[in-house]
């Protein structure tokens, strides 16, 4: 009878120990997953503060935007002037060609 009770107590202690071990591991798992989440959240804030904000501030600064606008406007004026000059050159070439062809061409009659 004493052996049966000792065996029951031993099996109970093993199962209780296994349950406690599982609870302990699960608690560590929950704690570690919370800790990983917390570290990820803090890391996201740090990256946002020290990487994203300076990059956006650098890329979208008023001075840079004004500089880009000024350069695009300058290129537009340059292309416009070049286009006017080219079209005038083409017009003069066509007039010279038309004058040359007109001088060589004689109406029949």
In short:
Keywords: Membrane, Transmembrane, Transmembrane helix. The chain has helices at residues 2-59, 62-104.
What does this molecule look like?
- It is built from 2 helices and no strands.
- The chain is rod-shaped.
- The protein is mainly alpha-helical and 109 residues long.
- The chain crosses the membrane at residues 9-28, 34-52.
- This is ABC transmembrane type-1 domain-containing protein.
- Keywords: Membrane, Transmembrane, Transmembrane helix.
| Total of helices | 2
Order of helices and strands: HH
- The share of residues in helices is over 70%
User: What is the rounded distance between the termini?
Assistant: 146 Å
Percent of residues in beta strands = under 5%
Organism: Hydrogenophaga atypica
Keywords: Membrane, Transmembrane, Transmembrane helix
Transmembrane segments: 9-28, 34-52
Protein name: ABC transmembrane type-1 domain-containing protein
How would you describe this structure in keywords?
mainly alpha; 2 domains; 109 residues; single chain; 0% strand
């Amino acid at each position: 009878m004493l052996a049966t009770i000792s065996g029951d107590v031993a099996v109970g202690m093993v199962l209780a120990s296994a349950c406690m071990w599982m609870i302990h591991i699960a608690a560590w798992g929950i704690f570690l997953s919370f800790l990983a989440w917390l570290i990820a959240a803090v890391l996201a804030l740090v990256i946002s503060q020290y990487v994203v904000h300076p990059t956006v501030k650098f890329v979208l600064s008023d001075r840079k935007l004004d500089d880009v606008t000024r350069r695009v406007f300058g290129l537009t004026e340059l292309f416009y002037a070049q286009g006017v000059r080219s079209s005038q050159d083409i017009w003069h070439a066509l007039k010279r060609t038309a004058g040359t062809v007109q001088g060589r061409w004689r109406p029949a009659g």
